[in-house]
Amino acid sequence: MMSQAIPTPTDSTSSTARRDLHTIALLVRDAPGVLVRVAMVFSRRGYNIESLVVSSAAKSGLSRITVTSSGDPSILEQMIRQLAKLIDVVHAIDHTSTDHFETEIALVKLACRGDSRRQVLEIAEHFNAKVVDYAAESVILRVYGGSDKLDAMIELFDEDSVLELVRSGKIVMARALELT
Amino acid sequence: MDQKIPTGAEKLIQCLEREGVEYIFGYSGGAAMPIFDALFDSNIELILVRHEQGATHMADGYARATGKPGVVLVTSGPGATNTVTGLLTSNMDSVPVIVLTGQTISSMLGKDGFQEADVTGITYPVVKHSYLVKDAADIPRVTREAFYIATTGRPGPVLIDLPKDVTQGPCDAPFVDEVNLPGYSVPTHGDPEAIRQAAKILQAAKRPILYVGHGAVISNAGKAVIRLAEKLRAPIVNTLLGKGAADENHPLHLGMLGMHGTAYANKAVDACDCIMAIGARWDDRVTGKLDEFCLNAAKIHIDIDPAEFGKMVTPDVAIAGDARLVLEELIPQISAGDTEEWLTQCETWRKKFPLKYAKQGGLRAQHVLDRLHHVTGGTAVITTDVGQHQMWAAQFLLSESNRSWISSGGAGTMGFGWPAAIGAQLGCPEKTVWAVCGDGGFQMTQSELATAQIHSLPVKCLIINNNFLGMVRQWQELFFDNRLSGVDLVGNPDFVKLAQAYGVKAFRIRRPADIDRILTEANEYNEGPCVVVAEVVQEDNVFPMIPSGAPLSEMIIEKPKGKLAKPVGST
Predict the structure, then answer these.
(1) Do A44 and B129 touch (CB under 8 A)?
(2) pLDDT tens, residue by residue, A67-91
(3) Residues in B touching A37 (Cβ below 8 Å)
(4) CB–CB contact A37 B124 (8 Å)
(5) Are the C-beta atoms of B71 and B25 separated by less than 8 Å?
(6) pLDDT per residue over B162-209, tens digit each?
(7) In B, which residues are within 8 Å of A82 by CB distance?
(8) Integer Cα distance of B469 and B412 in angstroms
(9) Radius of gyration of chain A (CA)
(10) Which chain A residues are within 8 Å of B290, Cβ to Cβ?
């Protein structure tokens, strides 16, 4: 089940696994409707949001929105200007090619009994995943790191054994004193 | 210190007074009652309309004619949803309008209360910004922000949704003067390096053209456009909404470009080697087939909204800034270009392909509009509705001065022309205001005849009546084997009698020989509103025409003999 092709587990990576996937970080006013306005820019242009994380920012009254979306870079560039144009958006930055740190967390509920349990635990160990729930016929693993690492681990499990999967969506932060 | 604490509604009206609001275009209803009650004691005059859509177009017309924001006040639910078309119209054409909507009490929000609608939700895509006020203490800040956002940068409509408990309850918050909007900045002066680059490209061009849009009207850049054109020796074209920014009578002006623009404007745009957009957004009515638009021309784009850069066209130089300020910085860097051959070519096109129409064979809209231009001396404020009459008006009523041409461009909203004229007349009482409407569009907001009549406004309405939805009929004739579907307006009222039923003076033109006499009489009638009905030939077409989605080179100048392929572009 485990092969040489598995990438070395790391907690972080600056590389985006999928070429066309862009990670856009927005600093927004914590105002009603801001999420709808942001989402509408994507939906009007027919862009799929792959993941979306909303959280509070360092300063009160501001929030963070991190969006990953795929598509033509030139169209995304114009869409980012449309995002920046929203009154409640303080700034919008595409971090695909910036020097940044990014991470994601996944919770994976796996059906496992007997032998299959040992295999699951081996994979978990390799990816530094922690068993956070240990039940008679299932376990829940918590794993974090780059999104490609999470993808790699999840792919190793038999599709039928993955009962539930919840991913946090990617979050990013620009390195050093650069703005996220 | 026994001062009464004002209600939220009273505070709101005080805020509007501080913003210098003269008129509110409104229609009352349950959830807006506290605001209408507060308005009772205010110096702001309420213009009671007959439908909320009319209110939004009046506010829009007022704003376009004066440059000041127009204000609308309606109730919740259907009152608010009836403003959506007007919001779209203002948003597409960058017009500063404030729409105040009453709302059910806060505790009923989301519970399907009577006349409740999720108004901020419904209107997100058609506003520049919007607010749902949950706390009366926010009213002064929200109102100040709304006016600031609506009127600065690229203007646009802002909606404020006001639950009844918020307007009814006390509000002792102080007035707000300064806005704090960290996500909103307005470009003013363009980047000097980009302006230098633009100057270099313009100067080197052999066949430059200045393409002027609504942004030039909004920033009052017309005189700077003319100075640049004269200095560089370059021709000017304008969009439908750019009319009036730079005097269309100027010898360097080639008129309107685009789908129904002049042939000489389009030929010049097609042949240019450098095109500079001044507050224009490369709309699909302008570019035709985008892949073939100005293929070999350098493109310079001046826009106050950076989100326009690269949306339709990726320019060689983009300058984010106010059109007038950017031009004023650009002009000193320009000297006379090597363009005499180019200007001669443009003049040849102008002479070879003039706008024309038949004066025989019945009454023609073009003839009536051509004479209206003559009768008004070109000084009237003209509003239009949408369709054939709009394009003919754009062609024949040359605009001399800024804010004298008001038309729904981006949204193409039928029903806009007549209420917009009422708003423009209220904003400019000293000016002559004419609405030019078709029989279809006029009927969508005709009930505003009452609004004009009760205020004795001397606003005039010319109805070009061909008993058809003429533009769609034209397309069906040219592209759909003349299978006329849904365009015959049989059942139209007698518009003269209709106007008279509202107590409005009405005239009728049936023959070309009547045109001047009746238009002059109507133009001089100032006791109240009047309607002139021109009973024109039923079937006539607007030319030139570039079928939508076709390149400019496929412009049709006269009615073609053979059948045409169905257009591939949008509508």
Answers:
(1) no
(2) 999 888 888 899 999 999 999 999 9
(3) 124
(4) yes
(5) yes
(6) 999 999 999 999 999 999 999 999 999 999 999 999 999 999 999 999
(7) 307
(8) 14
(9) 18
(10) none
Torsion of CA B411, B414, B416, B417, to 10 degrees: 120
CB atoms within 10 A of CB B6: 18
Q: Who among B182, B184, B306 is closest to A81 (CB)? A: B306
A1 inside 8 A of chain B by CB: no
| Average pLDDT value over all residues in chain A | 89
pLDDT above 90: percentage of residues in chain B: 96
Question: Which of B142, B311, B312, B313 has the highest number of chain A CBs within 10 A, making it the mutation to test binding with A?
Answer: B311
Is A40 in Cβ contact with B121 (below 8 Å)?
Answer: no
pLDDT of A5 strictly over 80: no
Q: Among B476, B498, B499, B500, which Cα is nearest to B487's?
A: B476
Interface of A with B in 56-85 (CB under 8 A): 62, 74, 77-78, 81-82, 84-85
Q: Do residue B124 and residue A29 have CB atoms under 8 angstroms apart?
A: no
Q: Could you say which DSSP state residue A178 is in?
A: -
Quick: pLDDT tens for B287-308: 999 999 999 999 999 999 999 9
Query: Residue B211: phi, psi to the nearest 5?
Result: -110, 110
Q: Which residues in chain A touch residue B307, judged by CB atoms under 8 angstroms apart? A: 78, 81-82, 84-85
Peptide bond into A7 cis (omega under 30): no
Q: In angstroms, what CA-CA distances link B504 with B89, B449, B496?
A: 27, 7, 9
pLDDT of residue B88: 98
Output the pLDDT for position A75.
Answer: 87
B141: tokens are 């800040």
- The dihedral through the CA atoms of B280, B281, B284, B288 has a sign that is positive
What phi and psi values does residue B102 have, to the nearest 5 degrees? Answer: -70, 160
Alpha carbon distance A3, A8 (integer Å): 12
The beta-carbon neighbor of B183 closest among A33, A78, A90 is: A90
Helix (H), strand (E) counts: chain B: 23, 18
Whether residue B284 has pLDDT greater than 80: yes
CA distance B212 to B555: 21
Those of residues 102-141 in A touching chain B at CB distance below 8 A are: none
Size of interface A-B (CB pairs under 8 A): 46
Give the integer Cα–Cα distance in Å for B179 and B145. 6
What tokens were used for B238?
Answer: 């304008």
Taking a contact as any Cβ pair under 8 Å apart, which residues of chain A between 30 and 49 contact chain B? 32-33, 36-37, 40, 44
Length of chain B: 571
pLDDT in tens, B315-334: 999 999 999 999 999 999 99
Asked if A86 is an interface residue toward chain B (Cβ–Cβ < 8 A), one would say: yes
- In the structure, what pLDDT confidence band is assigned to residue B146 with cuts at 50, 70 and 90? very high
Question: What average pLDDT score do residues A112-141 get?
Answer: 94
Rounded distance, CA B241 to CA B297, Å? 23
Asked if the model's pLDDT at residue A2 lies above 60, the reply is: no
A37–B181 CB contact, under 8 Å: no
Q: Report chain B's terminal Cα–Cα distance, integer Å.
A: 64
Residue B494 confidence (pLDDT) above 60: yes
| pLDDT confidence of residue A8 | 41
The C-alpha atoms of residue B120 and residue B137 are separated, in whole angstroms, by 19
Residue B549 confidence class, pLDDT cut points 50, 70, 90: very high
Tokens in use for B458?
């001397």
Sheet arrangement for strand B129-132: B45-48, B23-26, B70-74, B97-103, B158-163, B129-132
Q: What is the distance between the alpha carbons of residues B237 and B250, in angstroms, rounded to a whole number?
A: 11
Q: Which residues of B are catalytic?
A: 52, 114-115, 164, 471
The phi, psi pair for A103, rounded to 5°, reads -155, 165
Rounded to two decimals, the pTM is 0.95
